[in-house]
Amino acid sequence: MYALVCQHPEGNACGPRAHVLDVSPTVPLQVSPMDFHVDHQFSISVAEPTLREQQLQQELLALKQKQQIQRQILIAEFQRQHEQLSRQHEVQLHEHIKQQQEILAMKHQQELLEHQRKLEQHRQEQELEKQHREQKLQQLKNKEKGKESNWTECCAY
């Protein structure tokens, strides 16, 4: 048998033999399942209403602190995911810009090739026109020569 000294909330202490309590381990202690939502460090079975109120206030404060920590964890996770998405978006944006620049360069190259093709076609058309004019000129010269030679033959008699 063990003796305990009782301390009352008012500060009065009883003598060592005022209350005798048998705390020998004859019956195993029944422990209730743990509640992970609340720290039971403050859970003292108290019949005194002011102590119970203090206990509840402390538990409420502990819950608010846990809630604040959870809120901070959620905010940190949100910020991490937001930064990751921002980096991914920036990479995608750079890739899109690069692709657009490549497309623009290919279009410019196509336009340049088309312009060169048209210039070459125009040059060939001018060359053909020049050849036609030269052929007609040659035909006219030949015709003139033919008339002259006919005239000289005619007049030579």
Automatic annotation (TrEMBL):
Annotated EC: 3.5.1.98
UniProt biased composition (Basic and acidic residues): 118-150
GO CC aspect terms: nucleus
Gene Ontology MF terms: histone deacetylase activity, hydrolytic mechanism
Record flagged with keyword Hydrolase: yes
InterPro entries xrefs: Hist_deacetylase_Gln_rich_N
A Pfam family annotated for this UniProt entry: HDAC4_Gln
Location relative to the cell: Nucleus
Keywords, comma-separated and alphabetical: Chromatin regulator, Hydrolase, Nucleus, Repressor, Transcription, Transcription regulation
Superkingdom of this protein's organism: Eukaryota
Family according to the record: Belongs to the histone deacetylase family. HD type 2 subfamily.
Name the record gives this protein: histone deacetylase
Source species: Laticauda laticaudata (Blue-ringed sea krait)
